[in-house]
Design goal:
This protein has one domain. The protein is built from eleven helices and no strands. Helix 4 packs across helix 6. It is globular and about 50 Å long.
Length: about 260
């Protein structure tokens, strides 16, 4: 078995640390000093269910816009700080107007996050014009969040990728043949539904935290900053793994990742 060279091994160690870190809910709990799950139970009836549809629409609208505004020829570092600033501004607006603003603010913040995710993908050597890269960017929104019916075997990084693999392959074939001209195609809808079902969990956590009385605009900006930082970390880890898979093969990286994760 070929070993990773030292720099690549350190990159994989970093990826494991990022991808296996606490969830967004845990980070928000540390921020506001109370369990975010309690705040979720205080949301008005039906809000959590509506968020699934809202997140799926936001993801569908965000994908092409986010990727098309980036210069694929640029080879510098990703502009993480600029994207964090912009999403904190949208969070301030959402925090000021509460849950009523979520349907307006969520597509904006999702587009900004997807743009940052695509920027990170580009910085790790991903071709943004490639259909697989675009879908891998969307895949990031499924990471770091669990569903209520998940068991322990379906919450790890590689388990989530495996769960999405079939829908991602189907959606990828459609994009290669037809592009993004018809985002309502069944193949894309099925893939986005799988992503949205996980992403909406974290959106519910975000909405609950922002709905806490007296949190206001400043708190909304801070929550969005944590939200962006969380998905930037997921993206960085995800695209480091994909870069190393292109170099060493998926089997070796999977095996080494699992070995490193078991030591955490």
């Amino acid at each position: 078995m070929t070993n990773l060279n030292p720099p690549d091994h350190q990159d994989l160690v970093r990826a494991v640390d990022l991808l296996e870190n606490p969830s967004f809910a845990a980070k928000v709990t540390n921020l506001i000093g109370g369990p975010v799950e309690k705040a979720i139970r205080m949301l008005p009836n039906g809000v959590s269910e509506k968020l699934v549809n809202t997140t799926q629409k936001a993801l569908s609208k965000a994908m092409d816009l986010a990727v098309s505004t980036l210069d694929e020829r640029y080879r510098g570092e990703s502009a993480d700080g600029a994207h964090r600033f912009l999403t904190s501004v949208s969070g301030a607006v959402g925090g000021a107007f509460g849950l009523m603003a979520l349907t307006v603010e969520l597509p904006i913040s999702t587009t900004l996050m997807l743009r940052s995710i695509a920027d990170i993908a580009r910085s790790e050597g991903e071709p943004l014009s490639d259909a697989d890269t675009k879908l891998a960017c969307l895949e990031v929104f499924a990471l770091g969040g669990t569903k209520e019916d998940d068991d322990g075997a379906d919450t790890g990084y590689f388990a989530i990728r495996a769960a999405l693999a079939g829908a991602m392959t189907e959606a990828g074939k459609y994009l290669v043949e037809h592009g993004l001209a018809s985002s309502g195609a069944p193949a894309l809808v099925r893939f986005l539904a799988k992503i949205a079902s996980r992403y909406s969990i974290q959106v519910s956590e975000k909405a609950a935290a922002q709905a806490i009385p007296l949190l206001g605009a400043a708190g909304g900006a801070t929550i969005n900053l944590v939200f962006m930082d969380h998905f930037q970390n997921m993206a960085r880890g995800h695209f480091i793994v994909r870069r190393l898979e292109r170099t060493y093969g998926k089997d070796l990286i999977h095996e080494t990742y699992q070995h490193l994760a078991s030591r955490n």
